[in-house]
Design brief:
Number of domains: 1
Bound molecules: glutamic acid
Order of helices and strands: EHEHEHEHEHEEHEHEHEHH
CATH topology: Rossmann fold
Distance between the termini: 23 Å
Number of helices: 10
CATH superfamily: HUPs
């Protein structure tokens, strides 16, 4: 078993992250496996070295240790883009110049047969040679699914909420995912779910252990894995740690920051108890 904790260093480590990290770490240790750490820091404005240092310090304080060097996405952006570009030769991506307003307007006047909640396909079919500096790159999902029609698009989930084998249904994917943005408008930064899928394969991750809020990204990741001939790991989506009002913790939720509990004299065991992993 090889698993990982993959925080985006845009704020302090809070109880929700601690739960995710401890759970993945303990599952790896129990299986005699490997636990890795990855910094998902492609958002160069929001991700800072200070946050990363604090996360490393908090994880160490929690008693967690990881094998191999920490993988930092910021050093791999050119590589992600080069791999994304290979989809161009296969006609699977296209440049998109739509603003949010354009998309809203197109969705407000739906055409028959076009799903209502996904990108309406305004720029679909634009050739890559037509790409302007500020354009996003979108996946032509219909073409991708046609290409993969003889592949079993499935994944195994072991988390409590959705345990079992899931099939990525092409029709539902068309309606729910659509032509997603793989590279953001105006920046050469690939989407989180694409970078993460590349990294999981490159780090030979066999089990992805992460919060339930990311369950909805799994189908598109499975589709991308097949497009790039990458293996599909087992997924384990865990419950989210919520605050007293039942809301999930956010990065700005400093009240639950591990550094705050540390400053107040809590021990790593106290943190484990707070998230029911004591
Ligand atoms: N970087 C993501 C986050 O902090 C986690 C990605 C993943 O575990 O797949 O929410």
């Amino acid at each position: 078993m090889r698993t990982r904790f993959a925080p985006s260093p845009t704020g302090p480590l809070h109880l929700g992250h601690a739960y995710s990290a401890i759970l993945a770490h303990d599952m790896a240790r129990a299986a005699g496996g490997v636990f890795l750490l990855r910094m998902e820091n492609t958002d160069l404005e929001r991700c800072t070295g200070e946050w990363e240092d604090l996360i490393l310090e908090d994880l160490t304080w929690l008693g967690l240790s990881w094998e191999e060097d920490v993988l930092r996405q910021s050093g791999r952006i050119a590589d992600y883009n080069a791999r994304l570009e290979t989809l161009a030769a296969r006609g699977l991506i296209y440049p998109c110049s739509c603003t949010r307003g354009d998309i809203r307007a197109a969705l407000a006047a739906p055409q028959e047969g076009v799903p209502h909640n996904v990108y309406p396909g305004t720029c679909r079919g634009r050739p890559m040679t037509d790409r302007q500096a500020g354009d996003a790159l979108r996946l032509d999902l219909g073409k991708a699914l046609d290409l993969l029609s003889d592949r079993p698009l499935t994944f195994v989930e072991t988390g409590q909420g959705h345990a079992g084998r899931h099939r990525v249904d092409a029709e539902i994917a068309r309606q729910m995912i659509g032509d997603v943005v793989l590279s953001r408008k105006g920046e050469d930064i690939v989407a989180y779910f694409l970078a993460s899928a590349f990294d999981d394969a490159d780090q030979a991750i066999t089990h992805v252990i992460r919060g339930e809020d990311l369950f909805e990204f799994t189908p598109i990741q499975v589709i991308l894995q097949h497009l790039f001939n990458l293996p599909t790991p087992v997924y384990h989506h865990h419950r989210l740690i919520r605050d007293g009002d039942g809301k999930r913790l956010a990065k700005r939720d400093d009240a639950r920051a591990i550094r705050k509990f540390r400053a107040e004299g809590a021990t790593p065991d106290d943190i484990r108890r707070m998230v029911d992993l004591g």
